[in-house]
Amino acid sequence: MSQLQPPQIGSPWRRPLKGVVDELVIESDVLRDNPLGDPATRPLWVYTPPDSQVQGARLPAIYLIQGFTGQVDMWRNRSPYRPNVIELIDALFSDPAVPPCLVVMVDCWTSLGGSQFVDSPGTGRYHTYLCDEVVGFVDARYPTLANRDHRAITGKSSGGYGAMITPMLRPDVFGALATHAGDALFELCYWKDVPEVVRALRDNYDGSYEHFLDDFRNRPALSRPGDAVLINMWAMAAAYSTDAGGAVQLPFDVGTGRMLPEVWERWLAWDPVRLVPDHAQAMRSLVGIYIDAGTHDEYFLDLGAVAFRNALADIGVTDVNFELFDAGHGAIEYRYPMAMRYLAERIAAG
Hints:
The protein is of the alpha/beta class. The protein has 13 helices and ten strands.
């Protein structure tokens, strides 16, 4: 008996792509034996524009990194009435007016929710993984323009943070950046959560992060009040203030919320706003900088965006695409193509 072929499904369930997404696997040496025991075998997705746009040319590359709790397969998640991020990317690079680029979707997920894209004894060597292993892997397999001036990095929230700091620390690898509501001005975006964390630990976990983490790992995640703020704070401490031996240090007393200045200074040393003066030469060398945030961002990252822009101006970097727009922190995926178009024009083959 013949079997009926399923009908072709289109919008809004599936919008056929004009370009191609390759779903690859990379075996990381630097993530092997990471302190969290997270996988060293990682997915890596690479978008190539339609053949009609590429025409055999070597391509610039835009590296897309994710916010806290992000993992690469979430790029296919869909919000009501909206295309997903991959569809947005495909629509952008199907436009003949936009310089074609590879888009490399990097997974730096950890079991704490994220790595902040730094090397840390608390999470692993995710900065090295991104800059050395992933970039080398892509350049070896695709016809890229393998030069920092033809390579950009972009992301939102924690991904926006990674996009800000990575070209500062590795200007030899990335020559342009775009940040959407990236973590910045830490005294506003992080410290506001300290009282809530202290109360949640006191009321539910006898003041113990160990009790919280044990409970969190043995039930459905994010199923209790306080989960999000508690895991976020611990993950940030794992990134910014873990001792060389692996002990995570919090920047406050868990019983009172009193600041521990010596630990808090370790966090502030990672604040993009405070990093700019010490990396002025790197920032002046970039071929493109894009910064945006929503005017009612719940984490006050619009204020961090302004502070980051101002810090750049203080070192003489004024050629910046900057915008505050009417939105909060979430549901701003429609901003990605705006930044990518800007980046594509800045890193295009010349």
